[in-house]
Amino acid sequence: MQKVRPILIADRFAALQERLLSLLDELAAADWDRRVPGSRWEVRDVVAHLLDTDLRRLSFQRDGHPVPPADFEIAGDGDLVRFLDLLNEEWTRAARRLSPRLLKELTALAAAQAIELYRGLDPFAAAIFPVAWAGETASLNWFDVAREYTEKWLHQQQIREATGRTGLTGREFLHPVLDTFLRALPHAYRDVAAETGTAVTVLVEGEAGGRWSVLRGEAGWELFAGAPGRPHATVRLDQDVAWRLFSTRRRKPDLVRGAVIEGDRGLGAAALELVAVMA
C-alpha cells in the first residue's frame, strides 16, 4: 500500500465537456423532457443545473462575488443539504423559461470559462469550498476541483441514461470519479471502533476500478491506495454498482446486495455507507 496522492484533474474537464456538448447536439426535442431515473428532474433540469454550477464558480471564485446567505442557520450537513436543494430548485424552476438551444449555447460559453478557471488554480492553495462529504471543513483546490469533476461526470451520466445513450464508463472518465469518491472512506469509518492496525479494503472491479484501503492508526483511519496482504475485511463492488451507491444519499438495498464482503462483515459494511454527494 501507499498513501493516496492528490488528484490533479484540471486538464480532464475539456474532454468531458466535449462529450457533453456532442451529446446535447444529438438530443431530440422529446429527449429534453425525459425524466432522469430516480430523480424528479428532467433532462432539461440537469442541463440547467450544470450551467448553474459553472456560473456559480465563475461568479464566486473568479469574480469574487459574495455567496448569498441562507435564510436559516447552517449548523450541520443537513442544513447545508437543505440550502443546496433550495438553490438548485430555485434555479431549475427559472431555467424552464429557456429553450434547449439557449441552454446549450450558455452551457458551452460558461463551461469554457470555468475550464480556464480550473486550469489556472494552484492545486495546493486553499479551496473556496470544502469537500464536506469527505468530512473536511477546509480543502485544497485539487480536491475541490476533483469533486467538481465528479459532479460533471455524474450529471452527464444521468442524461445519457435518461436518453438511452452509452455511458462514459471507461477508465479515462470513470476512474477519476471513483478515486475521488473513495477519498470519503476515512470519513465513512469515523465512528467505527477498531484496534490500531485494522485494515479494510474496497476493491472496485472493472476497467475503471482499483483498490483503496483504510488503516486504523493511532489518530484515526487513514486512506491508502492498494491493499495489504491480509485485510480484516474486503468489500468487492462492480464499478457500476460502486458509482451508483456512492453518489446517492438514499440507501438502495439492490445496490448494497451487489457488494460482496469477505472477512469481518460488520467491519466491511461501513464502506457501503460512504456518500460522496451533498444534495
Characterise the protein shown here.
By secondary structure, this protein is an alpha+beta fold. It folds into two domains: 159 residues, Four Helix Bundle (Hemerythrin (Met), subunit A); 91 residues, Nonspecific Lipid-transfer Protein, Chain A, CATH 3.30.1050. Helices cover 46% and strands 12% of the residues. Strands 1-4-3-2-5-6 form a six-stranded mixed β-sheet. Strand 3 and strand 4 form a beta hairpin. Helix 1 runs antiparallel to helix 4, helix 2 crosses helix 3 and helix 2 runs parallel beside helix 4. 32% of the residues are buried. The mean pLDDT is 94.
Give the overall form.
globular
What can be said about the biggest beta sheet?
Answer: 6 strands, mixed
Total E-strand runs: 6
Number of domains: 2
In CATH, the topology of the largest domain is named: Four Helix Bundle (Hemerythrin (Met), subunit A)
Level-1 CATH class name of the largest domain = Mainly Alpha
Please give the radius of gyration in angstroms: 19 Å
Distance from first to last alpha carbon? 33 Å
Strand content: 5-15%
What topology does this entry show?
Elements: E1 2-3, H1 13-26, H2 43-62, H3 77-95, H4 100-120, H5 141-162, H6 171-181, H7 185-188, E2 199-205, E3 210-217, E4 220-225, E5 233-238, H8 239-246, H9 253-256, E6 260-263, H10 265-269
Parallel strand pairs: 2-5
Antiparallel strand pairs: 1-4, 2-3, 3-4, 5-6
Helix pairs in contact: 1-4, 1-5, 2-3, 2-4, 2-5, 5-6
